[in-house]
Amino acid sequence: MAQQTIDGLLGYITGGMANLHGTFATSRATDELLEAGRRGMADFLNCQPQEVAFGQNMTSLAFAIARSLGSFIQAGDEIVVTELDHRANVDPWVTLAKDRGAVVKFIPVNPETYTLELDHLDELITAKTKLVAVTMSSNVVGTVPPVEQIIERAKAVGALMVLDAVHATPHYPIDFQKLGADVLFCSAYKFFGPHLGIAVVSAGLFENLPVYKLAPAPAYIPDKLETGTQNHEGIAGLLGALAFIESLGEGNTRQERLRTAMQAVEEQEQRQAQELEAFLQTLPHVRLYRAPAGTRKTPTVAFTLEGVNSREACAWFFENYNMNIADGHFYASTLAEKLGIMAQGGWIRLGLAPYNTDQEIELFKTALLAFIKRSY
């Protein structure tokens, strides 16, 4: 969490918390806070402020939107998801299909390249397809699918397009308008903010989305999707996180500074990830789960160690080198099952961010070599 995020959270809490639509100053300040949060995310993702809705987390927002889309889906319709995705961008749509009698199809993952197999995309996305959901970056192996190709096919058959950008937003610039998707999800905690879910819904769909809400609640966008009292302090923290990212960029407008900041972040992270990848490829007893050179990837590097439980290895890294390295399936359970990695506790996952230094990369190399020496 960035210091600006902490300052935003504390500033709102200590400045007098209040709910919306009152006549007094702290309530009016909260009204403006939400609008400022929407404007900030609009600059970050190049969408319209009225297309931005806040919620508990990405998963809750996805289930809420899936429930709202029920009237759009009929028995015999088809919904397409992928084997690469975090289940938060699978199960809301699988549940919707089950409720409505629709058919679910999976875009498969190539188990050797960890990329989506798109050679038969026209057979997967057909005139029967009503919704397609795909990640913009795997939260485990880092693969960035060619979502533009998938969006083009979905739009050709009139299907709604849903993007999970939770793992993508911290690592490269995103342009919602240029992508032409209908729904995009992200989470502020992934880009140095608080735990806060964000949904971007294209205005045309949003206006006609029959969301489940309380009768007296606003019926206009984006408020109609924001059930109950929002996490106002979290939105204040979100603005701090955006300010931190903006400070890394250059330009005459906030949108320009945010875009150039994310370009700089991607450049640094790619350099460090490539160094890590090259190192891991040279080691015995290490299996690296990484798409081939030439495939766009985020700096999320997953591997396993032969004959070693991944959780035990991560505990050793923490106890001996104070390294916070995660293990498990990371809710990419479809991919985990397909690759058969749960028998040894799942993956060991390294995730790089702008604050990671070259010295930390070297320390990890030292730690892993020490672990291999003691284990084999």
UniProtKB/TrEMBL annotation:
InterPro entries membership: Aminotrans_V_dom (IPR000192), Cys_dSase-rel (IPR011340), PyrdxlP-dep_Trfase (IPR015424), PyrdxlP-dep_Trfase_major (IPR015421), PyrdxlP-dep_Trfase_small (IPR015422)
Lineage: Bacteria, Pseudomonadati, Bacteroidota, Cytophagia, Cytophagales
The keyword Iron-sulfur is annotated on this UniProt entry: no
Domain of life from the UniProt record: Bacteria
Keywords linked to the UniProt accession: Coiled coil, Pyridoxal phosphate
Coiled coil: 255-282
Name of the protein this chain belongs to: Cysteine desulfurase-like protein
Residue ranges occupied by any Aminotransferase class V domain in the UniProt entry: 3-364
Pfam families, alphabetized: Aminotran_5 (PF00266)
Keyword Magnesium set for record: no
Xref: NCBIfam families: am_tr_V_VC1184 (TIGR01976)
